[in-house]
Amino acid sequence: MESSPLIIGSGIAGIATAIRLAVKGHKPHVFEASSKAGGKLDVWESEGYRFDKGPSLFTLPELVEELFTLAGRNPKDYFRYKKLDTLCHYFWEDKTFLKAEANPKSFAQEAEKVLGEPAQSTLDFLEKSARDYALTSPVFLEKSLHKLSTYLSKDTLKAIPHLPFLGLNKSMNGANTTTFSTPKMVQLFNRYATYNGSNPYKAPAILNVIPNLEFNQGAFFPTKGMRSIVDSLVALAEDLGVTFHYNSPVEEIILENDKAIGIKAKGKNHFGSSVVSNMDVVPTFQKLLPNEKAPAHILKQERSSSALIFYWGIKKEFPQLDVHNILFSDSYQKEFEALFETFSLIDDPTIYIHISSKVNAEDAPKGCENWFVMVNAPCDQGQDWDSLIAKTRENILNKLERILGENVRSLIETEDVLSPPMIQERTSSFKGSLYGTSSNSQMSAFFRHPNFSSSIKGLYFCGGSVHPGGGIPLSLLSAKICTEVMKEA
């Protein structure tokens, strides 16, 4: 393996990094602690129900397709997906219901009809979201923020004059309160802070670029479920000569003269040309580099939120629900104060329900639905999770039964749960946070760990805990940045 890059972890960023390196002629070896690849993109099956256990929203499919194209393959030979006509069904306690269609004009008109929000306000917001995304993504998402060349690029010079108008000095909620006249519309767009585990009452308004991904570019669904993204990419990687070592937890990164030269897995040393960690950056330093000085400012940063998820096989179909559904809390600001200040869950949490059987009927028995029921949760701070899980389960069921008018608990045929401590245990995500660090400060994007080590040569990083952030699209971009930095070394 002396001339091969060694990759720690096979989350989607680790797989994408391996593919990009293989396309360039390398023979990467990927070491994975569990028995299969994918990290958070896991799957669970029970009594005829199939559940994607991790990410449930698919945007920017071109980032996945690009990997096949780079390898000279036709993406459709490996992976297929469809565009959703409806983005989400929104519910409030006062029985207000809003169907968010994928067409921006249709959505704006429906929001005016249902909420009283002027359609033009919504369209103006979405147009600005698209403009700001187009302006900032080439700088903040597609390049390293820790290389001088980024700041001398044409994209950066083009963006600089617009910085005062990007909302860096205002919170998402502050900007949305100014933009929209109705509290429900403010709440609807505030929720996009949760897409990177942040607090809309503190996170900068620049995060209002996130809705652009859904409303202007589209939400999609893989025809064989979210797990099929991983399965297709692993198949491509193996076709390109990537070697996966499963059940091989890495115990140490081997250094020589301040250079990463290999890893130790299952008591055996493996040497390579470089080391890439797709493991959360905190345990990478704490567990694999215990004798090296860790970047203190990274370790002290506020963690992103986590999730508490129930997987319920429901023996009934609910026509009022769609693929993606949100049942909003009446105490939204208190919900985020609990998440980030007291590390707790309120009694009226916002509930997200994902039902893939709405698209793929094979994911549930006939006449039934597979419910992925999630509430935002604090990262693990040693809370009494058994108590929190039991209490929150009851609060969720009570809220569902109030809004849907059905005895939901009597319809549950099979059940599983995923909590922040379980997320940490299964995916090495520090404290169970889903997106590494939060974006609750003006300069948070610049404080993420870079995709390379400034003190250890040959050591690189990809995945949701480093630049540019968490979630499928940003993790894929982290792989792209990582391999570009490796090429420059």
What does the model show?
The protein has 489 residues and is α/β, with parallel strands linked by helices. 35% of the residues lie in helices and 19% in strands. Strands 7-6-15-16-17-14-18 form a seven-stranded mixed β-sheet. A five-stranded parallel β-sheet has the order 9-2-1-13-19, with helices on one face. Strands 10-11-12 form a three-stranded antiparallel β-sheet, with no helix packed on it. α1 (12-23) runs parallel beside α10, α1 runs parallel beside α17 and α7 (172-179) runs antiparallel to α8 (183-190). The model has no long low-confidence stretch (mean pLDDT 93).
Q: Numbering strands along the chain, what is their spatial order in the largest sheet?
A: 7-6-15-16-17-14-18
CATH superfamily of the largest domain: Protoporphyrinogen oxidase, mitochondrial, domain 2
Going by CATH, the architecture of the largest domain would be Alpha-Beta Complex
Overall structural class, as computed from helix and strand content, comes to alpha/beta
Helix content: 25-40%
What's the CATH topology name of the largest domain?
Answer: Polyamine Oxidase, Chain A, domain 2
Radius of gyration from the CA trace? 22 Å
Record field, number of beta strands: 19
- What's the number of domains? 3
For the sheet with most strands, the description reads: 7 strands, mixed
State the helix count: 17
Poorly predicted residue ranges = none
